[in-house]
Write a structure and sequence with these properties.
The complex is a heterodimer of chains A (529) and B (457). Chain A is 42% helix and 13% strand. Chain A is α/β, with parallel strands linked by helices and 529 residues long. In chain A, the strands form three sheets. A six-stranded mixed β-sheet of chain A has the order 1-12-11-10-13-14, sandwiched between helices. In chain A, helix 6 packs parallel to helix 8 and helix 13 packs antiparallel against helix 14. Chain A is globular. The model of chain A has no long low-confidence stretch (mean pLDDT 96). With 457 residues, chain B is an alpha/beta fold. Chain B has three domains: 134 residues, Nitrogenase molybdenum iron protein domain (Rossmann fold); 113 residues, Nitrogenase molybdenum iron protein domain (Rossmann fold, 3-Layer(aba) Sandwich), CATH 3.40.50.1980; 166 residues, 3-Layer(aba) Sandwich (Rossmann fold), CATH 3.40.50. In chain B, the strands form three sheets. Chain B has a five-stranded parallel β-sheet, sandwiched between helices. A four-stranded parallel β-sheet of chain B has the order 3-2-4-5, sandwiched between helices. In chain B, helix 7 runs parallel beside helix 10 and helix 12 runs parallel beside helix 17. Chain B is globular. In chain B, 59% of the residues are buried. Classes of the chains: A alpha/beta (529), B alpha/beta (457). At the A-B interface, helix 3, helix 4, strand 3, helix 5 and helix 6 of A face strand 1, helix 2, strand 3, helix 3 and helix 4 of B.
Chain lengths: 529, 457
């Protein structure tokens, strides 16, 4: 680590040092990492912006909402079909995921304001699609010119009788995508969740929070839950809908897959409706088993526990042969992971199923609690760059707050289920001597690769060809390289297949042309052999 | 696919853009900057923009697209991004050591009115290094406009006049793939014309696999050549929207005259290019080019019955679209719908000129600038077509309406190898002819009754 840092000048050295940790579990005090602070200009970061976190990640997957990007065209264009949150039309036949919408702000809109155009765009969109809601997402210039998108949303809602929600997710807010998650969560709590009291029909019901159905992950997760007899009320937000989300408060339990993006909603729903949450992980075979068991344990019904065990046995039997085969091909390999705010941790568990060890892992925009565990949450200081991200306080909702368990029983659950309203973070599962790096930049990527020589580097599209040009396989863990699902039991097999395919593709042996290693010309040079 | 699109009528929209046929300026500026050797493109805005732009270039070329950012925070957005740029420049030279940092802007820094000239003048730049810049407000034009602005920026900030003519011509190749730039260079070399192509992404966005990653790959216009452009004899701007701005800048600054040509797509447009080169070089047309041309025309005659009368919808960047319309007409096809998302310039006039030249009834072609894929889809539903020509963004409509798509232009993000295959020149037209005929003939094979399946076609 020092070898990399030593190449920086003093100021950068001081900054970046805090974002790197060599994991050491023998220390008495837990290790700390700097995270969720501003990006250093010019470092070639991989981070995106608040808009991407709000519209691209959380709002975009909702299929029955018309998401209008208020801004110049780019932000809308770049969030069109590029993140693979899959969706199928629901009962109302509506699926707007294959579209992208924009007010396409021009110079005149910047000068004279874009509110009128936004209003007209909402009207046109409603007339065309009759969506269940309109979501207005603002971009950089909107906040600067002072367009009041919340006022426009309120007027439009009154005028057209369709729910209109505004998200002030200008790209410059916060320091990364993370601010956008928070802004989106706040509006869902305020304006969507809790509106429709239609109860679930099944005995056990859940919401899946922070699951965006990339490559069908959410569908695989839902399939497993349904097999176990667990009803899924809503998924936030992969293949999700406003219609489902309005009933989310009627579910029995919240499952949190992506802690970073959605823990706000889990906490607030707990306060408002008394719904407990557990941190699940459906990436990885053992992780999936553990998550299913934790759900059964929470509901505490012997029949459910038995059913879950039966499903696990059956699913494991189906994949066992494939799993063994891929494990044989992968055991002993090493990996580095650099993904957004949750997968760098989750996928370590899947890799472990195949005998692959992790030598380096980092997040683009996670906070300290994602690295170190929720126990550090109260000690996190909100700095100047993040302090303007609205933190809303909620209270129990009259008539809709239900206590699920007695305080004594809750204590017992907390003791028995280690993921009950708790996330331990990434560091606890990383091996001694491995590296944890926050907001890894291009320079560090190259240096660490030289040093650690991992067999595979899991990252995103901006990195992929950099790494592969250097001779190292890179698999994307955002887009799954257009494959998937990778969640659940079947997903694990898909992942194993793709990783083996990548490592063993015959082309790697062709990188060096034969004339580089053996003489192509016979003869003498300068009279010498 | 696209079930939510109303099929009964076309709605005239004035405010809502759906499925845009353009993106914003900076991505074009990054592409142009990557076409000069040893340059680090830099985005002066919040970091989300450059993440998106790098993502799109990488997805199109399946290559790294390196670029840095000022990474604005809310504070900088209110009080100005001067300090961010200063820090960025220092870090970039320290850590990534480019010869030049080429700065472009975003809607953020443009809206707050950051004065790049003042910022850059105040920044300490290491000996022998440079920082250049251009203004690329996302609320004006499109990615093509950004390409044009950055190319012009290189001329404005770097081209010098010593008074000693180099005899070279500047060639601005347009917003095209590296393969097109290679093909264009082949024509210049065939005439023995000494040239500087700028920008030139050959060797950068089509770099070979060697087992070593190069932050600044071998390709790109050499800096010394960019600097010497002030002494150039003449320029060729291929494409009005993407290239004329750069040639104009060189004329304004150093009085270098230029010819503005269309992108050489198809027979006539390539002929125009060849004629212009022949006149400039005062050189007969090399036989090799005449053979290529003859081969192209030969194949067009051979295959004409599969193309004749086929209705085509074309959408994409204006220079490319105009070229495609011209070629499609040469093939006896019908350009039924023609659109671009890029505003500015006289798109309608350019389409009309091409239609008139071919003697094609203007009324039989629907054409529009500042349209989007949603509108074009609605029109295609009303009057179906046989073929779609343009970027990957057509693919939803291709699936929804069961119409074959031939991918060309930017971005093509769902296929491999295409940046290595030219669209321009006689060779490019030959490839396009083959792909169009293949698409239509595959469709005939697929759709015909078994007894009608032809072995020979």
């Amino acid at each position: 680590m020092d070898k990399v840092l030593d190449q920086y000048e003093a100021k950068v050295y001081k900054n970046r040092k805090k974002h790197m940790v060599t994991v050491d579990h023998t220390l008495e005090t837990p290790q700390e990492i700097a995270a969720n602070v501003r990006t250093v200009p010019g470092m070639l970061t991989h981070r995106g912006c608040c808009f991407a976190g709000c519209k691209g990640v959380v709002v975009g997957p909702l299929k029955d909402a018309l998401a209008i990007v208020h801004g110049p065209i780019g932000c809308s264009f770049y969030t069109w079909g590029t993140r693979r949150h899959k969706a199928r039309a629901g009962e109302d036949g509506l699926n707007l995921v294959p579209y992208t919408f924009s007010t396409d702000m021009r110079e005149t809109d910047i000068v004279f304001g874009g509110e009128k155009k936004l209003m007209a765009a909402i009207e046109e969109g409603i007339e065309l699609f009759h969506p269940n809601a309109v979501m207005i997402c603002s971009t950089c210039p909107v906040g600067l010119i002072g367009d009041d998108i919340h006022a426009v949303a309120a007027r439009a809602e009154e005028k057209f009788g369709v729910k209109c929600i505004a998200f002030s997710c200008e790209g410059y807010k916060g320091v990364s995508q993370s601010a956008g998650h928070h802004i989106a969560s706040n509006q869902f709590i305020r304006r969507v969740i809790g509106e429709d009291d239609t109860p679930p029909t099944g005995k056990y019901s859940v919401n899946v929070l922070g699951e965006y159905n990339i490559g069908g992950d959410g569908w695989e997760t839902e399939r497993l839950l349904r097999r176990c007899g667990i009803e899924v009320v809503s998924v936030m937000t992969g293949d999700g809908s406003v219609a489902d989300m309005r009933r989310a408060h009627t579910a029995g339990l919240n499952l949190v897959q992506c802690h970073r993006s959605i823990n706000y909603i889990a906490e607030m729903m707990n306060t408002q409706y008394g719904i407990d949450w557990i941190k699940v992980n459906f990436v990885g075979v053992n992780a999936t088993c553990k998550s299913l068991r934790a759900i059964a344990q929470y509901f505490g019904d012997a029949a459910l526990v038995d059913r879950v065990e039966a499903v696990i046995i059956d699913e494991m039997e189906i994949i066992d042969e494939d799993l063994q085969y891929y494990r044989g091909k992968l055991k002993g390999k090493t990996a580095a992971l650099y993904v957004g705010g949750s997968r760098s941790h989750h996928y370590q568990q899947l890799l472990r199923d195949f005998g692959v060890s992790t030598v380096l892992a980092g997040y683009e925009f996670a906070h300290r609690d994602d690295y170190e565990g929720r126990e550090v949450k109260d000690s996190i200081k909100i700095d100047a760059d993040n302090k303007n991200i609205e933190n809303i306080t909620v209270a129990p909702v009259d008539g809709k707050y239900h206590v699920r368990f007695s305080p004594e029983k809750l204590e017992e659950l907390k003791r028995d289920i280690d993921v009950f309203e708790y996330y331990g973070g990434m560091i606890k599962e990383m091996g001694n001597g491995t590296l944890m790096v926050d907001d890894l930049n291009h320079f560090e990527t190259e240096e660490f690769v030289k040093m650690l020589k991992p067999d595979v580097f899991f990252s995103g599209i901006k990195d992929k060809f950099v790494l592969q040009k250097g001779g190292i396989l890179s698999r994307q863990l955002h887009s799954y390289d257009y494959q998937g699902p990778y969640a659940g039991f079947r997903g694990a097999v898909n992942f194993g297949h793709d990783l083996v395919m990548g490592l063993y593709t015959p082309v790697w042996s062709k990188v060096v042309p034969p004339w580089r290693t053996e003489p192509a010309l016979a003869g003498t040079i300068g009279g010498e052999e | 696919m696209l079930e939510a699109t109303p099929r009964d009528s076309v709605m005239e929209r004035h405010a809502l853009v759906a499925n845009p046929a353009k993106t914003c300026q900076p991505v074009g500026a990054v592409y142009a900057a990557l076409g000069v050797h040893g340059v680090m493109p830099h985005s002066h805005g919040s970091q989300g923009c450059i993440a998106f732009h790098r993502m799109f270039l990488t997805r199109h070329f399946k290559e790294p697209a390196m670029a840095s950012t000022s990474a604005f925070t809310e504070g900088a957005s209110v009080f100005g991004g001067g300090a961010n740029l200063k820090t960025a420049v220092k870090n970039i030279f320290d850590i990534y050591d480019p010869d030049v940092i080429a700065v472009h802007t975003t809607c953020l820094s443009e809206t707050i009115g950051d004065d790049l000239h003042a910022f850059v003048s105040a920044i300490e730049v290491p000996e022998g290094k440079r920082v250049i810049y251009c203004s690329t407000p996302s609320c004006v034009g499109s990615h093509v406009t950004g390409f044009s602005a950055m190319a012009a920026g290189f001329v404005e900030h770097m081209a010098e006049k010593t008074g000693e003519p180099t005899g070279k011509v500047m060639v601005v190749p347009g917003f095209v793939n590296p393969a097109d730039m290679r093909e264009t260079k082949k024509y210049l070399e065939a005439f023995g014309i000494d040239y500087t192509m700028m920008p030139d992404t050959t060797g950068v966005m089509d770099a070979p696999m060697t087992g070593t990653f190069e932050l600044y790959p071998k390709g790109g216009t050499p800096l010394a050549e960019v600097e010497a452009l002030g002494d150039a004899a003449y320029s060729f701007a291929l494409g009005t929207w993407a290239s004329a701005g750069c040639a104009n800048a060189l004329k304004r600054k150093h009085g270098v005259d230029f010819a503005e040509l269309g992108l050489p797509i198809g027979v006539g447009a390539t002929d125009d290019f060849v004629m212009a080169l022949a006149r400039h070089a005062d050189h007969r047309v090399p036989e090799a080019l005449e053979v290529e041309r003859g081969q192209l025309v030969d194949c067009m005659i051979d295959a004409h019955q599969y193309l004749d009368g086929k209705r085509v919808a074309i959408c994409g960047d204006p220079d490319t679209v105009i070229g495609l319309v011209r070629f499609v007409l040469e093939c006896g096809m019908v350009p039924a719908f023609v659109g671009t998302g890029t505003p500015g310039g006289d798109f309608a006039g350019a389409v009309e000129a091409v239609l008139d030249e071919a003697g094609f009834d203007r009324a039989a072609c629907w054409y529009k600038a500042e349209t989007d894929y949603f509108e074009m889809h609605q029109r295609i539903i009303q009057e179906p077509v046989d073929l779609l020509l343009g970027p990957s963004l057509w693919k939803q409509i291709a699936k929804a309406e069961d119409v074959p798509l031939v991918r060309c232009g930017f971005p093509v993000i769902d296929r491999y190898v295409h940046p290595y295959i030219p669209l321009v020149g006689y060779k490019g037209a030959l490839q396009l002819l083959q792909r169009m005929a293949d698409a239509l003939m595959d469709r005939q094979d697929r759709d015909c009754e078994d007894c009608d399946l032809e072995f020979v076609m």
